Amino acid sequence: MLDLRRLQYFLTIARERSLTRAARELGIAQPALSYHLTQIETAFGVKLVERHARGVVVTEAGAMLQAEAQRIIRAVKETEAKLLEQADVPTGEVVIGIASTLTGVFLSPLLKVATTDLPKVKVHLQEGTTQSLAHGLRENRIDLAISMSSVGSSSAEPLADEALCLISNRENAPGCAEISLADALKLPLILSTPRHHIMRSIVDGAASRLGVEANVVLEIDGTFMTLAAILDGYGHTIMGRSFTEKDFSDGLCSTRIVNPTLYRRLILHRSDAAVNPIAMSRVSETIKTVATQLIEDGVWEKIDSTGATFD
Questions:
Q1: Cβ within 8 Å of residue 197, ≥6 positions away
Q2: What pLDDT, on the 0 to 100 scale, is given for residue 235?
Q3: Helix (H, G, I), strand (E, B), or coil: what is residue 74?
Q4: Which residue of 38, 88, 189, 192 shows the fewest CB atoms closer than 10 Å?
C-alpha cells in the first residue's frame, strides 16, 4: 500500500517524468522503482502514469496522488520542524542553492562559519543556474538560494553588487587592468544562450544601449564547459570576479570592464514555505555575515542605489 517512502518515490517519478532519471536521483535500481509503482497501481486499481518512448506522463489519478503526496510530506516535515524548534539550539536540515558562478568565492567561507556557529544544523548544498534554483524554490526543494535574480521567491534580499570582468586565458588576455565595454564586446565572446542565464541579458542589454552587437562566437550553457573553452583559447567571457576565484584560476585572468562599469546584483532568496523557519533564519543571517565580509575584503561591493548598470 502507501507509505512515505513510496509517496516520495512517486513524487520523484512525476517530477522527473522518467523512471530512469527518477531511479538515478533516488539512488535505487530502475526495476525496483518500477516494482513500487506497479504495486501502488495494482493495490488501488488505477493507472498513475502513461509510459511512452521519452518517459512518463502522470494520469488524472497520478496528478491527484502527486498533489496529496506533496501535502502529506510537507505536513510530516513541518511536524518534524516544530519538534526540532523545541530545542535551545537550532537543529534540522536547511537546503541552500548557490549559483554555479558564485561557488568559488562563497562556498568555503560559508561552510566555515556555518559549521562553527550552527553545529547542529545540517546544511545541504546544491549548485545550479538561476533558473534551476528558482524552480527549486517554487517546488519547496530549496530553502535558501543565492543567485542573480529575484524570480521564484517573494522573500528576496539584495546581498551585494559584483562588478563584471572580461575573463580570458592568460595568453589571450588584453594585458591591462581595465577594458572599455565597447572594446570588450568586439572580442570573440563565449556566452550562454539568451534563455538560460541572466548574464546574457546583462551583456545584450549593455550592447544594445551602445548601439552595437556582442561578438558572440560560441554559446555554451554550463560553467565548466565555458571555462574549458576559454582555457583552450576559443574566446573570452564576461562574468563576475567570483568566476575565477577557485578552479582553473592559475590559467585565467580577469580584466575589469569600464565605460560603463557593469554589475550583477547578488540576491538571497528565502522559501515562502520553509519547513524549518528557525534554522533557515539563522542560516540566512550566516549568509549575510559572509557577504558582508566579502564586501569588506573588496571581493564584492555594497549595494549601489545610484544607478549602476543592471538588466
A1: 129, 130, 191, 221
A2: 95
A3: helix
A4: 88
CB 300, CB 161: distance < 8 Å: yes
CA distances from 78 to 27, 73, 122 (A): 25, 9, 16
**33 vs 194, more confident:** 33
Residue type, 261: T
The size of the chain, in residues, is: 311
Q: Residue 2 class from Cβ within 10 Å (0-12 exposed, 13-18 middle, 19+ buried)?
A: middle
Neighbours of 272 (CB within 10 A): 12
pLDDT in tens, 180-199: 999 999 999 999 988 767 88
User: What residue has cell string 539550539?
Assistant: 89
Distance CA 122, CA 188 (A): 44
22 in Cβ contact with 12 (< 8 Å): yes
pTM: 0.68
**Pairing between β-strand 178-180 and β-strand 252-258 as defined by DSSP bridges:** parallel
- At residue 228, the 3 state secondary structure works out as helix
Question: What string of H, E and C letters represents the secondary structure of 19-87?
Answer: HHHHHHHHCCCHHHHHHHHHHHHHHHCCCCEEEECCEEEECHHHHHHHHHHHHHHHHHHHHHHHHHCCC
The pLDDT > 90 percentage for the chain reads: 45
Rg (CA), the chain: 22
What gap in Å lies between CA 271 and CA 240, rounded to an integer?
25
For residue 308, is pLDDT > 60?
no
